[in-house]
Amino acid sequence: MRRPTSDPFTRVSRVSDQPLIHARGLVKRFGDFTAVDGIDVDVMPGESFGFLGPNGAGKSSTMRMIGCVSPPTDGVLRILGRDPRRDGPAIRARLGVCPQLDNLDPELTVRENLTTYARFFGIPRRVARARAAELLEFVQLSERAASKVEPLSGGMKRRLTIARALVNEPELILLDEPTTGLDPQARHLVWERLFRLKQRGVTLVLTTHYMDEAEQLCDRLVVMDGGRIVAEGSPRALIERHSTREVVELRFNVESQDVFADKLDGVGERVEVLPDRVLLYVADGDEAVADVHRRALTPASVLVRRSSLEDVFLHLTGRTLVD
């Protein structure tokens, strides 16, 4: 893979033992609806932190408060040590934001989307041009610098949006569903770029409803459901705490899988029945499959896999992550 000739990100990381984000009892209401219901969060410098949950869990509302574009209804929130209610503009000047929907300017070239955005932060033209060149190299878009935005693929637009979020050398980068709508190849390229930022000590905060994305990128995360945090920890710690080592997925050729719940009782630690399959949470998948056959059951398909964050979420909330 082609490597950038320069590294514009060593300037981004700051050394501190104080959290860049500190929230206690954070609440966001819209009329009678409570989107965020009293959450506590700390994000440390250099950490890659995630908010995991389905649509409507409160992730984006939390990110908008952290991004100082939506005021908290109640609770304590400090971003970079400052109060967003009083110091919103000063905080935003030190943030990089990659919104859920790309909002690039289609009338400008790829390069101009960076240099024009840089002017909002008072960055001199000469510095902006040099920084744009560095960033386009980093996101592998140098060859498209003079192209308009409209013909770019979805993955290219996403990478350009990430590059734009880095123009002001932010201390904290917010990424709201960074790979939603991308094909698998584009998703993995975005992951690789974000992972390189993480390696350089850049502080990342992202929301996602993709379990594999959270496992790939997050040092630590919270699982949100209904506006509340239902679990917190590293991806591996959450899986070890709330699930088993392996999961057996069984599919039976019947309209409803529910009829097999009682027949599988006692196979492993627990049984979860979904509309299209039955999940067995077990320590040894092969032994569990043998037990299923000893019970004279013949599933149409069998899959043995390791536990994932989706299993954690299903256990904690009773439903899958992607609704």
TrEMBL record:
Subcellular location: Cell membrane
UniProt-recorded Gene Ontology molecular function terms: ATP binding; ATP hydrolysis activity
Membrane topology, record value: Peripheral membrane protein
Regions crossing the membrane: none
GO biological process: response to antibiotic
Keyword list, A-Z: Antibiotic resistance, ATP-binding, Cell membrane, Membrane, Nucleotide-binding, Translocase, Transport
UniProt entry tagged with the keyword ATP-binding: yes
Listed Gene3D superfamilies: P-loop containing nucleotide triphosphate hydrolases
Source species, domain of life: Bacteria
Annotated GO CC locations: plasma membrane
Domain named ABC transporter: residues: 21-251
PANTHER family the record matches: ABC TRANSPORTER ATP-BINDING PROTEIN, ABC TRANSPORTER ATP-BINDING PROTEIN NATA
Family: Belongs to the ABC transporter superfamily.
Protein name (record): Lipooligosaccharide transport system ATP-binding protein
